[in-house]
Backbone:
């Protein structure tokens, strides 16, 4: 018997992982949630059939989306995380002793429950007293915040489905309002490779550029996401992601990472020409 | 076997017909889409397959004897009407049919001036004379309200020979008149009551909505099934009470209605009627819940005013349709039309319309909570990014029209085109309106005043889409020579 999980990356490209067994399947008010176990990638979580994370490569995504802004901001104390019900970003954030408060806004309570039960690798720090979880639409939560956070991390699903609102101009504008005058917003920025993903990436970049004075993009290699080439957005009101970056200071914190390091931080902002061009087209 | 609301005779006949695989040597010439593959790929084979002509098994809208007749009877039952007709020329055609039924050349009809252009167009066609009842106005919001009973009484007293009274119920903004009292008054004076219920289809199926035309005892109503009812654009219902001779009405409708009614439209009416009859109360409960939530959140943003039942005053706002999400924008320092444009250009959100002082976002069961959140956030962002002092904004005042000629005589008279600026003092021979909502600022036969010219120029400058004039750019306006 062979059981395979398959995700369609484009109408003509499929990506499959051989499944050992399925641990969970359920429907929430918002989406279908599945957890599988596999030989190659360990446990993995999918939402509406789209890959969210695998135990084998989640560290890349979570380190890159978390440490990059945390290392640029000189003193991040109050952090807002939107999405991220799997707990991966929380896990990385709680490694900073200087962080005082982490608000996590996840629309789907069931994602958190399922993650706590089946994904202990990521959902391991929900018990940290600094973490406060709100089950609410991020678009709604942020509307009411003003001059409140140092860093906002938008760990969204794709720009269709329940995460759609997290790719809109009204959302980015609200984020800008919710940040202190030296605040930083980082977001999951889709992939530049396949046409449809690239178009979504451009749309979201354009909207961020219109909402923040500094808007840069950085990349990482994430094997289980379409094309493996993944981008993150770095938007800020004051700090430049590389010019205002003190790698030594971050290294001194002694946070042990498997992907992120201070040389990679700078290098991740160096983009391939075709990506630069896609971004320039909408800037 | 007696039919019930679970049936959809036209829809069922079409499905049966499709299974018969009849070879078409009749129109339409695309022959189930095979003759126009690009269109078929675009619209889908299922859609092209049922784009068929009237024929025995599918009945004929001009003279229904089988499935269309059955479907119309079911619709009448669902709406609590004596008779109902399927309309394929939009609610415009239903409005025109009811006026042309009630009035012939020279007859008077009492109506509020803030009617849809289709009503005044009907007057051009049948040569009836309008007796306008000026609607009460809410000066804070700059919107026209419903008809007050005392004004209707006065109009009846002054025009005892009028044949009918027409009521807009609800208005685009959701405002309702005291339909029951107006109907009683009209009937006591031998006048018919015609209700433009384009924005009120849901009144028939939801709980706790204002009273519907048929329930109030009105004689004829036009219900835009394609607005809140979920059918395809251009499909509509004409509803008739006991006093109306439906067979004569059919002849009136056939004066202008197509003889090739689209089965896409007809089946959409049939299926939508079934859906509303079976689950309308749940559908509209959800709609209202979303509208109420949005209203609360928008009012919490501040500046914007999403108005509701607090406007009710027992007369010109006898009731309010809470499924409508109308928002007053002037306190934010932006005209409604500016907010309308910003929502589309900056936030990819298309709303129903924006006028000088208000916007209307159309909420229906098809909406998702997350889209409502986007709309609210976008308004909050518009206020933050573009908001300014609300001082000096022109409010939208209702301008009492001065009627110099009947619409028909003005429309067909000798005319000349004048630059808008020089037109004051002349009698207009065409319509001028912002579309939507399509309520005329000027109708044929009305005197152009300085105030009106100023209003049109302000609306143009704010970006309103002006329509109605022969000159597409509305630099010149046709006046009586």
Residues:
């Amino acid at each position: 018997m062979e059981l395979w999980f398959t995700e369609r990356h484009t109408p003509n490209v499929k990506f499959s992982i051989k499944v050992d067994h399925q641990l969970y399947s359920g429907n929430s008010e918002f989406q279908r949630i599945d957890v599988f176990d596999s030989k190659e990638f360990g446990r993995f979580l999918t939402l509406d059939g789209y890959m969210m994370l695998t135990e084998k490569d989640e560290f890349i995504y979570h380190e890159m989306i978390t440490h990059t802004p945390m290392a640029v901001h000189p003193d991040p104390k109050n952090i807002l995380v939107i999405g991220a019900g799997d707990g991966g970003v929380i896990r990385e954030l709680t490694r900073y002793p200087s962080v005082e408060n982490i608000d996590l806004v996840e629309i789907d309570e069931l994602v958190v429950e399922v993650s706590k039960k089946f994904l202990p690798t990521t959902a391991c720090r929900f018990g940290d007293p600094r973490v406060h979880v709100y089950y609410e639409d991020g678009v709604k939560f942020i509307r009411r915040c003003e001059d409140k956070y140092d860093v906002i991390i938008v760990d969204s699903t794709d720009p269709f489905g329940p995460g759609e609102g997290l790719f809109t101009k009204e959302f980015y504008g609200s984020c800008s309002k919710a940040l202190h005058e030296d605040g930083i917003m980082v977001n999951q920025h889709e992939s530049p490779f396949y046409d449809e993903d690239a178009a979504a990436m451009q749309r979201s970049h354009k909207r961020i550029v219109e909402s923040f004075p500094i808007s840069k993009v950085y990349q990482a290699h994430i094997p289980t996401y379409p094309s493996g080439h993944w981008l993150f957005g770095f938007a800020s009101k004051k700090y430049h992601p590389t010019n205002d970056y003190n790698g030594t200071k971050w290294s001194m914190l002694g946070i042990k990472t498997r992907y992120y390091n201070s040389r990679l931080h700078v290098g991740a902002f160096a983009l391939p020409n075709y990506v630069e061009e896609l971004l320039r087209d909408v800037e | 076997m007696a039919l019930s609301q679970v049936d959809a005779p036209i829809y069922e006949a079409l499905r049966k017909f499709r299974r018969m695989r009849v070879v078409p040597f009749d129109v339409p010439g695309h022959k189930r889409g095979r003759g126009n593959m690009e269109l078929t790929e675009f619209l889908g084979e299922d859609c092209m397959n049922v784009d068929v002509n009237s024929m025995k098994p599918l009945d004929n809208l001009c003279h229904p004897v089988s499935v269309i007749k059955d479907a119309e009877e079911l619709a009448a039952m669902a709406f609590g009407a004596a008779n109902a007709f399927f309309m394929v020329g939009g609610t415009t055609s239903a409005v025109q049919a009811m006026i042309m039924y009630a009035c012939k050349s020279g007859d008077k009809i009492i109506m509020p001036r803030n009617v849809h252009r289709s009503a005044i167009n009907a007057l051009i066609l049948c040569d009836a004379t309008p007796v306008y009842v000026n609607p009460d106005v809410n000066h804070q919001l700059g919107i026209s309200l419903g008809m007050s009973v005392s004004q209707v009484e006065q109009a009846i007293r002054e025009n005892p020979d009028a044949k009918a009274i027409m009521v807009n119920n609800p208005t685009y903004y959701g405002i309702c008149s005291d339909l029951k009292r107006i109907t009683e008054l009209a009937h006591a004076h031998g006048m018919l009551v015609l209700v433009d219920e384009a924005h009120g289809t849901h009144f028939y199926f939801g709980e706790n909505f204002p009273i519907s035309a048929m329930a109030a005892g009105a004689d004829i109503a036009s219900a835009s099934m394609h607005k809140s009812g979920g059918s395809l654009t251009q499909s509509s219902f004409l509803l008739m009470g006991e006093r109306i001779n439906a067979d004569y009405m059919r002849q009136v409708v056939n004066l202008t209605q197509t003889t090739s009614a689209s089965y896409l439209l007809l089946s959409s009416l049939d299926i939508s009627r079934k859906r509303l009859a079976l689950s309308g109360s749940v559908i509209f409960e959800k709609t209202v819940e979303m509208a109420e939530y949005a209203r609360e959140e928008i009012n919490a943003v501040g500046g914007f005013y999403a108005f509701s039942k607090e406007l009710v005053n027992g007369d010109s706002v006898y009731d309010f349709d809470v499924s409508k999400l109308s928002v007053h924008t002037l306190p934010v320092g932006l005209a409604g039309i500016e907010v309308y444009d910003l929502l589309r250009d900056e936030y990819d959100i298309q709303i129903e319309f924006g006028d000088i002082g208000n916007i209307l976002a159309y909420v229906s069961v098809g909406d998702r909570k997350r889209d409502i959140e986007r709309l609210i956030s976008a308004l909050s962002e518009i206020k933050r990014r573009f908001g300014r002092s609300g001082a000096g904004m022109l409010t939208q005042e209702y301008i009492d029209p001065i009627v110099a000629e009947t619409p028909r005589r003005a429309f067909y008279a000798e005319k000349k085109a004048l630059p808008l600026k020089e037109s004051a003092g002349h009698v207009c021979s065409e319509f001028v309106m912002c579309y939507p909502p399509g309520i005329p600022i000027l109708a044929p036969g009305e005197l152009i005043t300085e105030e009106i010219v100023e209003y049109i120029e302000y609306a143009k400058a704010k970006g309103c889409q002006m329509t109605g004039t022969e000159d597409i750019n509305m630099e010149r306006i046709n006046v009586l020579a």
